[in-house]
Amino acid sequence: MASKKRGPYDGTSRTSKWRKLEKEEEHESNVDEIAGPETIDDLTDCIDEVPNEYDILVEEMLEEEKQKLDQKSSDNQSDIENQPLYQGSRLTCFLSIEKDAKCETCPNCSSKSIRYFITIPLKDQMETILKRPGVLDMIRKSKIERSELGNTSTIEDVYNGNVYQSHFDISGFFHGTTLEERKHQLHLSFQINTDGVAVFKSSKFGVWPVYAVINELPPDARFTRENRIFLGLWFGTQKPNMKLLFGSFLKEFNLLFTGIPMSIKEEQLTVKAVLLSSTADAPARCLMMDFVQFNGKYGCPCCLSPGETFAISATGNSHIYPYKSESNEGHDKLRTKEETKATAHRVETEYLSGRRRDPVPEMGVKGISFLMSFPKFDLIKDDLREPVMYIDIDERKKQVAFFPNLIEKD
């Protein structure tokens, strides 16, 4: 899969270039490969002439991240900005290929639809955040305050949840950490998130940024721009190959779990961290978990109910999961990490053995999710359900249905 240098930066209109690329990919033209942006600078340049309603949304987001990365690059003496975007083959290829390199694993790959992504070193960004004045003290103060309060039944933050407490003791260290180790170690946890943003109004081109936040920071500092970790960005006409995108920084998460030495405020610390949770809207969550869509058979990520199709109008149907009166809990058997992993391996084995042309979902599971590879991560319990999508929006629909006179009609 040799890459030809046909980069779209030859002085012509950027917007027309991207629309031309979109047309070439969509109609499977005879062009061997379609060149894409090579750096974040290139990506922001490409979007300079996006239609107005998307210009602000996408360009500002990328420009903010570029400025953030420029600063981190300067702080860490690492050339983050000029790292190449990797090219991924079709769904069955999980390799990252350098620009102008040939993929020896899948030389017969017929895919003309190339997607691009960048990944930013996690360690460098963490070090930059922890070196910022007051951040390390803020984290330690928060841990001390929680330790003094002791265990409480009040749910105030992520620390009070069962998942957090299954990893960390009351002092904010991993269970089993010795007193000597606590003197020179710092233990943290992450929450990751991703979602897609369309670049053009009538286009399949989109970007998928991947973010992480440090849970041990207080809520008012946790989600601020300067403390948000930008893990990577996917760009292309198709939804991300999650195995390829997230697999690119899985190694760093594994290293952090065992411990990475960092020099912070003249202290030599071993920083350990674990991925505590992931959150996304319903469609993105299905991609991350490698499940069927939420509106399909066995689409519930929590239990093994197949659901049923319910007619909501003369022409429309909806897939619902009705209350199960014969069950004490009101639902089918809950999914477990172990059973889901075993099911995923069966599906992948059937597909890779050549017995099936495409993966056939079993109980809603389409294959092995990258989340299964993160240390201590429970795919079922640790993937959070977004309340805005499941509660707030649904309640607004009900209110509109009950109060139709509130809607102005043309």
TrEMBL record:
* Region of interest (Disordered), ranges: 1-39
Record-linked InterPro entries: Transposase_21 (IPR004242)
Name the source's superkingdom: Eukaryota
- Ranges of Basic and acidic residues composition bias in the record: 19-30
Q: Under what name is this protein listed?
A: Uncharacterized protein
What is the originating organism of this protein?
Magallana gigas (Pacific oyster)
Q: What is the lineage of its organism?
A: Eukaryota, Metazoa, Spiralia, Lophotrochozoa, Mollusca
